[in-house]
């Protein structure tokens, strides 16, 4: 079974001490950070230690990775992170054509080199927009994956499905470059409207058995449980962990 972590973004509406205590009690031992929690590093480290949690991976805004890679390296080393992922591009920052994405992918490869030289895995976390057809069946995620074998992917299964793609086929397609998988479920039609249409893992419409098998065949060693907007993060965390450990 892969290591199981929890993306802290889903608990952004709750206080960190409460969240870490809840996750520890639920049985989590790992979490994934994101930009909003790196402000008070001393407090963050103390809270993790108190609850016997490790921050093994982290999301960092691409602008920080590009402009201050040493800051990213220092934070990652302080918490013992193994991998760092750039998580998102706003609408106005997204390339509009194949050539633009090729230039972006090359820039992403360059941005990751200082982190990789420091011993970190570096990669990209997808949403749905990277899986849109740019022409001739090529997607932005294809371009990113083809830019360098050293550029890894944190494949978000929920967004793959939201993009209308087959998750198992997508896993097979990028198998050699998937370092981590985001395990995110989708609510049934008309359900979960107050949670942006997402669901607790194992309580939505996603068939996880073949996805899990494909991820394991690809050698993916870490699953990060995520929900972008839970109205009850305790319910989400506990039910999702139960579902994933039962796979």
Would you kindly provide a written description of the structure presented here, covering whatever features stand out?
With 247 residues, this protein is of the alpha/beta class. It has a single domain (3-245), classed as Divalent-metal-dependent TIM barrel enzymes (TIM Barrel). It is built from ten helices and ten strands. The strands form two sheets. Strands 1-10-7-6-5-4-3-2 form an eight-stranded parallel sheet. The protein has a two-stranded antiparallel sheet with strand order 8-9. The termini are close together.
In terms of per-residue confidence, which ranges show pLDDT below 50 for 5 or more consecutive residues?
A: none
Apparent shape: globular
* CATH overall fold name: TIM Barrel
What number is the mean pLDDT?
Answer: 97
Beta-strand content estimate: 15-25%
Number of domains: 1
Task: Work out the oligomeric state of the chains in this entry.
Answer: single chain
The CATH class designation is Alpha Beta
Q: What's the number of extended β-strand segments?
A: 10
Largest sheet: 8 strands, parallel
Spatial strand arrangement across the major sheet: 1-10-7-6-5-4-3-2
Radius of gyration: 17 Å
CATH architecture: Alpha-Beta Barrel
- Class by helix and strand content? alpha/beta
Task: Annotate the secondary structure layout.
Blueprint: E1 3-6, H1 16-26, E2 30-33, H2 41-50, E3 54-59, H3 62-67, H4 69-79, E4 83-86, H5 98-117, E5 121-125, H6 140-147, E6 152-156, H7 157-162, H8 167-173, E7 178-183, E8 185-186, E9 198-199, H9 208-217, E10 222-225, H10 233-245
Parallel strand pairs: 1-10, 2-3, 3-4, 4-5, 5-6, 6-7, 7-10
Antiparallel strand pairs: 8-9
Helix pairs in contact: 1-10, 5-6, 8-9
């Amino acid at each position: 079974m892969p290591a199981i972590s929890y993306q802290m973004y889903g608990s952004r509406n709750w206080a960190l001490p409460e969240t870490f205590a809840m996750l520890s009690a639920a049985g989590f031992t790992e979490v994934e950070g994101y930009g909003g929690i790196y402000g008070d590093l001393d407090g963050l480290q103390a809270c993790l230690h108190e609850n016997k949690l490790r921050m093994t991976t982290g999301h960092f805004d691409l602008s920080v990775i590009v402009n201050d890679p040493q800051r990213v390296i220092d934070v990652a080393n302080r918490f013992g992170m193994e991998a760092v992922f750039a998580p998102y591009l706003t609408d106005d920052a997204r390339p509009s054509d194949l050539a633009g994405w090729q230039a972006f992918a090359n820039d992403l490869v360059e941005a990751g080199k200082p982190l990789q030289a420091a011993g970190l895995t570096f990669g990209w976390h997808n949403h749905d927009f990277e899986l849109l057809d740019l022409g001739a069946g090529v997607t932005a995620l294809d371009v990113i994956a083809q830019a360098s074998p050293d550029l890894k992917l944190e494949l978000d299964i929920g967004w793959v499905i939201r993009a209308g793609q087959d998750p198992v086929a997508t896993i097979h397609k990028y198998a050699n470059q998937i370092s981590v998988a985001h395990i995110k479920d989708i609510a049934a039609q008309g359900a979960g409207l107050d949670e942006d249409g997402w669901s607790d893992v194992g309580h939505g419409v996603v068939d996880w058995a073949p996805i899990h098998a494909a991820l394991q065949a690809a050698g993916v060693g870490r699953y990060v449980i995520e929900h972008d907007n839970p109205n009850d993060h305790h319910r989400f965390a506990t039910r999702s962990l139960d579902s994933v450990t039962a796979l």
